[in-house]
Write a sequence for this structure.
């Protein structure tokens, strides 16, 4: 069944439609949660909490296409993860000296699979990982990140820089070549 029809039926309380929507979108949303939370069980719990909020708010949602639906659901999942990190006090801004710049070869991440990259990101400390995800993956600027996390823009920039440096070190430890990209 197509998503617009499922959304309409789910708004009317159809448990079957809700299950179909969950089955279609849960895999992608679990990966969103896993980018923010290391523990698989916590990510699954956050996924369920996020879908609960999604279905609870669905009657007020105006379906404008699959992209809008996906964006809204993804935002719910990210917010659930950030609230979880705050509650667990797992979101700690790591304050260590800035990692030294490492000269790197001119081969890009071409040899890495999405799974390899994901596994490296998940290994980052929570503060680094959160800022990295919000900036590099979600496309937020440092002002938005600072506001969302209750930190300064400078702290957001510092955490992103440290996350990138740590990722570079992790790549080198795995003997993976990497191109240092300057993204502003």
């Amino acid at each position: 069944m197509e998503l617009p029809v499922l959304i309409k039926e789910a708004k009317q309380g159809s448990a079957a439609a809700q299950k179909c929507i969950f089955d279609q979108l849960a895999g992608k949303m679990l990966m969103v949660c896993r980018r923010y939370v290391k523990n698989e069980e916590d990510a699954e719990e956050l996924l369920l909490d996020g879908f609960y909020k999604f279905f609870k708010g669905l009657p007020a949602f105006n379906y404008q296409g699959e992209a809008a639906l996906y964006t809204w659901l993804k935002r719910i999942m990210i917010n659930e993860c950030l609230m979880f990190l705050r509650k667990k006090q797992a979101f700690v801004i790591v304050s260590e000296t800035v990692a030294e710049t490492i000269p790197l070869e001119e081969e890009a991440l071409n040899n890495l699979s999405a799974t390899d990259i994901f596994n490296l990101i998940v290994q980052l400390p929570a503060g680094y990982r959160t800022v990295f995800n919000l900036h590099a993956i979600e496309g937020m600027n440092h002002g938005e990140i600072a506001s969302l996390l209750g930190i300064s823009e400078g702290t957001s920039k510092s955490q992103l820089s440290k996350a990138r440096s740590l990722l570079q070190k992790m790549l080198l430890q795995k003997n993976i070549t990497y191109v240092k990209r300057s993204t502003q």
Observations:
- Helices lie at 3-11, 15-36, 40-57, 66-87, 114-122, 126-137, 142-149, 153-173.
